[in-house]
């Protein structure tokens, strides 16, 4: 299949941005009447969005929140919205005010929110109406936490210019974003991303051989904006180009395709489950006729699905690899300029990658090794003290394993052993296991990831019921749904008599995986 010709590169802002919010200011200056956000029947131009962002800043200043500086993080503001204009304006407003944005999934339950809000020492939550009950329940016991709606934050500030001193001067090394992720397992950890790191990755991706977002693109944002891929890889990239973003709050096969077709979408960042679902849709080529390119990330894409989508649409589907700690882009087939199913391509310009063996030495040519990365896009370590960040030479070990093929392109071999990735979202087995152990009728439980044709992996729980209990798999799922977001809940529950254990008493999850067809 011939490649599509690359789009003309987007013109960068005249003055290099110092903060992520500067991207919006520059877009408003150069294309004030160009549509920035389309959400259902609502459209905001770049000029209008910039004014909304200023209104958020004014509200945050009025609330008395303290901006940060390099080495001194500002107050943390949790943002709980779906893919809505309110999320976009609040996020950029928090950054323009010199504060730290903590985007959280509005589907999180109260126990999940309580943990994360407390961990971040959050001062303010700006939330959607649907999340009110969960946020109120989560806020109990968190000292000094305030809760507001978007309207309550901006009040009468929309349209009023910022007063002198309301917009602080922010240095690029100031902490901008706190995103909760984890290493191989255990409790979620907050990855600290500065303005420098976020902007660096935007420029690194923009410098790829094929322009990922051009000025006249209409970009689909259906992946949750609380995820770094959608937040920096889609929204910030579109702001840099002053392109148009179509917000879709929740993916369903037909609704998302209708948005692509009716709103003139030309650029589709997605994840494997999206493309797997679309590959079964009739008239796909006709409905995606206006699309310039498609891009997949967040989880490994089955090569067969990628081939099918490209065959059906006649459009290139590029794949990439990244992680929260890299803001997020590390490599992509965009860099080589040609789709290559089964590969995640080459490092973006400015990102260095090396493959290491267990001793920390470079592997032999063609051998798999742990991916270690270095670049200006890397995070500053985990909240709050910067622990486990890049080493003294700037290298960060990802825990992911890959090898280089004959063309010099990366091919992933395995993800971190314990981590389960469902539709691109990290699920930490220990978190699910802790919830399972809260069920009185559960004697013992363990969680692993198993392959799934649409979500990449699914959560499987092995549960030993207490003697004499009538606990069923349906009971287990129902209990989990009250304490975990849907994507974290086990979709497969095996009721077993015993769990396998190692000689030291640890659950032998490798044997559990081997027993799973």
Overall description:
This protein is α/β, with parallel strands linked by helices. The chain folds into two domains: about 20-405, Rossmann fold (3-Layer(aba) Sandwich), CATH 3.40.50; about 420-515, ANL, C-terminal domain (GMP Synthetase, Chain A, domain 3). The chain has 15 helices and 24 strands. It has helices at about 20-30, 45-60, 85-95, 110-120, 130-140, 150-155, 195-205, 230-240, 255-260, 270-280, 285, 305-315, 430-435, 475-480, 510-515, and strands at about 35-40, 40-45, 75-80, 100-105, 125, 145-150, 175-180, 190-195, 220, 245, 265-270, 295, 315-320, 330, 345, 350-355, 370-375, 395-405, 410-415, 420, 425, 440-450, 455-465, 490-495. A five-stranded mixed β-sheet has the order 11-12-13-14-15, with helices on both faces. The protein has a four-stranded mixed β-sheet with strand order 2-1-10-9. Strand 23, helix 14 (about 475-480) and strand 24 form a beta-alpha-beta unit.
């Amino acid at each position: 299949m011939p490649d599509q010709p690359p789009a003309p590169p987007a013109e960068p802002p005249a003055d290099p941005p110092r903060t992520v919010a500067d991207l919006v200011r520059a877009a408003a200056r150069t294309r004030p009447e160009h549509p920035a956000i389309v959400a259902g029947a609502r459209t905001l131009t770049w000029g209008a969005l910039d004014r909304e962002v200023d209104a958020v800043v004014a509200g945050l200043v009025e609330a008395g929140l303290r901006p940060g500086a390099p080495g001194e993080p500002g107050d943390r503001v949790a943002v709980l919205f779906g893919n809505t204009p309110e999320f976009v304006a609040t996020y950029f407003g928090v950054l323009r005010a010199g504060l730290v944005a903590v985007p959280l999934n509005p589907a999180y339950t109260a126990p999940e929110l309580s943990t994360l809000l407390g961990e971040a020492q959050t001062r303010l939550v700006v939330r959607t109406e649907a999340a009110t009950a969960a946020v109120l329940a989560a806020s109990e016991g968190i000292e000094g936490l305030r809760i507001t709606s978007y309207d309550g934050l901006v009040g009468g500030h929309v349209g009023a210019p910022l007063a002198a001193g309301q917009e602080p001067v922010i240095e690029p090394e100031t902490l901008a974003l706190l995103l909760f992720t984890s290493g191989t397992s255990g409790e979620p950890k907050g990855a600290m991303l500065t303005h420098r790191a976020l902007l660096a990755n935007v420029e690194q991706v923009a410098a790829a051989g094929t322009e990922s977002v051009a000025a006249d693109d209409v970009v689909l944002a259906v992946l949750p904006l609380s995820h770094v891929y959608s937040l920096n890889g889609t929204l910030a990239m579109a702001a840099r180009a002053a392109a148009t973003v179509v917000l879709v709050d929740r993916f369903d096969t037909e609704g998302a395709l209708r948005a692509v077709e009716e709103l003139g979408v030309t650029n589709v960042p997605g994840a494997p489950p999206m493309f797997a679902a679309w590959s079964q849709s009739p008239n796909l080529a006709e409905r995606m006729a206006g699309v310039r390119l498609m891009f997949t990330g967040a989880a490994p894409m089955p090569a067969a699905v990628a081939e099918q989508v490209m065959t059906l649409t006649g459009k290139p589907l590029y794949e990439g690899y990244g992680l929260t700690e890299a803001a997020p882009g590390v490599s992509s087939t965009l860099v080589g300029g040609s789709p290559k199913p089964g590969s995640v391509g080459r490092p973006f310009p400015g990102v260095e990658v090396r493959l290491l063996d267990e001793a920390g030495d470079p592997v032999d040519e063609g051998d798999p090794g742990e991916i270690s990365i270095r670049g200006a896009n890397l995070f500053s370590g985990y909240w709050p003290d910067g622990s486990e960040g890049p080493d003294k030479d700037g290298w960060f070990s990802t825990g992911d394993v890959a090898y280089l093929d004959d063309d010099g392109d990366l091919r992933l071999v395995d993800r971190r052993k314990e981590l389960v990735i469902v539709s691109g979202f990290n699920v930490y087995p220990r978190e699910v296991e802790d919830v399972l152990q809260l069920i009185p009728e559960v004697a013992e439980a363990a969680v692993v990831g198993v392959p799934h044709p649409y979500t990449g992996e699914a959560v499987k729980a092995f549960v030993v019921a207490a003697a004499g209990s009538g606990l069923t798999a349906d009971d287990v799922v129902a209990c989990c749904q009250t304490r975990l977001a849907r994507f974290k809940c086990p979709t497969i529950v095996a009721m077993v008599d015993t769990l396998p254990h190692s000689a030291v008493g640890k659950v032998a999850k490798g044997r559990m995986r081997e027993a799973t067809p």
